[in-house]
Design brief:
By secondary structure, the protein is α/β, with parallel strands linked by helices. Helix content is 44%, strand content 21%. Helix 18 links the parallel strand 16 and strand 17. Helix 2 crosses helix 6.
C-alpha cells in the first residue's frame, strides 16, 4: 500500500491528460479506501484480543476537531453540506488523553454523518458538563440532517460487519466496522457511545468523557487582546454559522451584530453604523460576498470597512476580487484560532496576505539547496526504493541505495552520510541490528537514522529509538512528512 499510494501521489504531480488524471485519482482513492479497510480490521482485531492500549499526552481539543474537519471539507463541499463545530462558550480546551484514538472516533462519526446526509449540515457540538479541580467532563455530539435511522434498526449499528440494511450497503458501502471500533474506543476511555435518530430528519451520535484538564498557556490569548471591544458585523444566511461566530467573538470580548440578509446589512452600514471589521459569507441567496463588497464600496461612510470573506474550500474565487475587496479569505470549515489570528493581524494593520505569499514561496524552494545533505536509503523492496528515491529527488536530493541492513552498515563505514532512511524489516540484517552496529562504529561522524516501517503498533517506535534511531516514519509515508523531516534535520545539521 505504501508503494501504491505513494507512487500514485507522485504520478498525480506529473503532466497528465484529463482522462489519465481521472484514472490516477481513482487508483489513489481506491488505495486509500483499501488502506482504511485494512486499518479497521487490524484495529478491530487488536481490540478483540485486548491488545490495544491507550496513550496519554496533552492536546488541544479544538485543534483536534479542526484537523478532522479539514479532512472532510472537500467532501462536504462536493455535497453542498455545511460543516461546523461549536464549543461551550467557545473555550479553548487543553486536555490530557489519547488524542489519536479520540481523533479516530471523530473521523468515523463525521465520515458517517457526511455519507448519509444529502443536504443541510453536519455539526460537532462540545458541551462542558462538569468541572472539578484538574478534571473536566465533556459531551461531544456529531449531529447531521441526513436520512436518519429507524428505531427498530438502531441495535444493528454496533454489530461488527453489519449495516442498517442491504440497500444501505449497496448505496453507501463501508465495512460496518467504523462504529463498532468507535464504540469500543470510547468504552476504553471510560465513556459510552449513544445514538438518537429520526428517519428523514437526521441523527445524533454522542458520548461523554471525563479527562484531566491541562493549564492554559497565558501567552495564547495575549495576542488577541487587540480584538477586545472591537465592533464586528457578520453577514451570513446560515443561522448555525452566525450563532457559532457570534459566540466565538463575544467570548473574546468583541461586540457583534449578525445579519442573515446582505441587503439589510448594507442598509445598516449605509445609515452610518460604524464597525471595525466585517465577516462576509461568499454564498448567499440575495447576493454573494463579492457583490456585497462591491455595493459596500459605493458607500462613503463604510467604504473602507476591512472585510474578511469566507467560503467553502472548493469554491472557485478570483484572486483579483479577493485582493480588491477583502483583507483576507478564510476557507470553511472555519478554524477558530486561525480566524481570530487573521482578525488580530488586520486590526493591528499587518498584511496577512503578504505573509501567506512568503510562506508559499519558501515552501517551493528546493530544500536540498538550502539544506544540503548526503542521504542513504536502506530498503529491500524495489517499489519502495523507487518511491523514496522519487520523493527525495522531488526535494532536490540524490540518494545512495542499500538493499539490506548489511549493505547499509558497510556503506556507512566507507562513506559519510548525514541522514539514513532505514527500513526495519530486511533480509540478512534488519534495520534495528544495522542501526545498533552503526552506532558502535568509531571514527565516523554519526548520521541521523530514521526508521521507515509498516509496523505501527504500540511499542514499535520505542524499539526503534532504543536501537539508536533518531526518528520514526510509519508507512505509507506521505511526501509532506519526508519534506518536514528533511527541513527539521537539515536545520539541525547547520547548527
Amino acid at each position: 500500500m505504501n508503494g501504491v499510494i505513494g507512487m500514485t501521489g507522485l504520478l498525480a504531480d506529473t503532466e497528465l491528460t484529463a482522462q489519465q488524471r481521472e484514472f490516477v485519482d481513482t487508483i489513489k482513492v481506491s488505495g486509500e479506501h483499501l488502506l482504511n479497510i485494512i486499518n479497521d480490521i487490524l484495529d478491530f482485531s487488536k481490540i478483540e484480543a485486548g491488545h490495544l492500549e491507550l496513550e496519554e499526552s496533552a492536546f488541544d481539543l479544538n485543534t483536534c476537531i479542526e484537523e478532522v474537519m479539514n479532512l472532510f471539507s472537500g467532501r462536504a463541499h462536493e455535497k453542498n453540506i455545511e460543516l461546523f463545530y461549536r464549543v461551550t462558550n467557545s473555550e479553548v480546551l487543553q486536555l490530557r488523553g489519547d488524542v489519536t484514538r479520540l481523533r479516530q472516533v471523530i473521523v468515523n462519526l463525521i465520515g458517517n454523518a457526511i455519507k448519509f446526509t444529502e443536504h443541510g449540515e453536519v455539526v460537532i457540538d462540545v458541551n462542558i458538563l462538569e468541572r472539578t479541580e484538574g478534571r473536566i467532563k465533556i459531551k461531544l455530539s456529531v449531529i447531521d440532517t441526513g436520512i436518519g435511522i429507524p428505531e427498530e434498526k438502531l441495535d444493528r449499528l454496533f454489530k461488527p460487519f453489519s449495516q442498517v440494511d442491504n440497500s444501505t450497503t449497496r448505496k453507501y458501502g463501508g465495512t460496518g466496522l467504523g462504529l463498532v471500533i468507535s464504540q469500543r474506543l470510547i468504552e476504553l476511555m471510560g465513556g459510552n457511545l449513544l445514538v438518537d435518530s429520526t428517519p428523514g430528519e437526521g441523527t445524533c451520535f454522542h458520548f461523554t468523557l471525563e479527562m484531566d484538564e491541562e493549564k492554559m498557556e497565558e501567552s495564547k490569548n495575549q495576542s488577541l487582546e487587540i480584538l477586545r471591544n472591537k465592533n464586528v458585523i457578520i453577514v451570513d444566511d446560515n443561522r448555525t454559522n452566525r450563532l457559532i461566530l457570534e459566540q466565538l467573538f463575544l467570548t473574546n470580548g468583541m461586540k457583534v451584530e449578525a445579519y442573515d440578509s446582505p441587503s439589510v446589512a448594507l442598509n445598516i452600514l449605509a445609515q452610518g453604523k460604524l464597525f471595525d471589521l466585517g465577516l462576509i459569507d461568499m454564498k448567499m441567496p440575495e447576493m454573494d460576498g463579492i457583490e456585497f463588497a462591491r455595493e459596500l464600496k459605493k458607500s462613503s461612510i463604510n467604504a473602507e470597512l476591512p472585510l474578511i470573506l469566507y467560503s467553502s474550500i472548493g469554491h472557485m474565487l478570483s484572486r483579483t476580487d479577493i485582493g480588491k475587496y477583502f483583507k483576507a479569505h478564510v476557507s470553511k470549515p472555519i478554524r477558530h484560532d486561525f480566524l481570530l489570528k487573521k482578525m488580530a493581524d488586520i486590526i493591528s494593520d499587518k498584511n496577512p496576505s503578504q505573509s501567506e505569499k512568503n510562506i508559499f514561496e519558501n515552501q517551493n524552494q528546493k530544500i536540498a539547496d538550502k539544506y544540503p545533505m548526503s542521504i542513504l536509503l536502506a530498503e529491500d523492496n524495489l517499489i519502495n526504493q523507487k518511491l523514496a528515491e522519487q520523493v527525495l529527488a522531488l526535494y532536490g536530493y540524490s540518494t545512495s541505495l542499500a538493499n539490506n541492513g548489511k549493505e547499509a552498515l558497510q556503506m556507512a563505514q566507507e562513506n559519510h552520510f548525514d541522514l539514513i532512511f532505514m527500513d526495519v524489516m530486511m533480509p540478512e540484517m534488519d534495520g534495528l541490528e544495522a542501526t545498533q552496529k552503526i552506532r558502535q562504529l568509531s571514527g565516523i561522524a554519526q548520521p541521523v537514522i530514521v526508521a521507515m516501517t509498516a509496523n505501527a503498533l504500540k511499542g514499535d517506535r520505542e524499539k526503534c529509538i532504543s536501537a539508536g534511531m533518531d526518528d520514526y516514519l510509519s508507512k505509507p509515508v506521505e511526501k509532506e512528512q519526508i519534506r518536514d523531516l528533511l527541513i527539521h534535520y537539515g536545520k539541525k545539521a547547520q547548527k
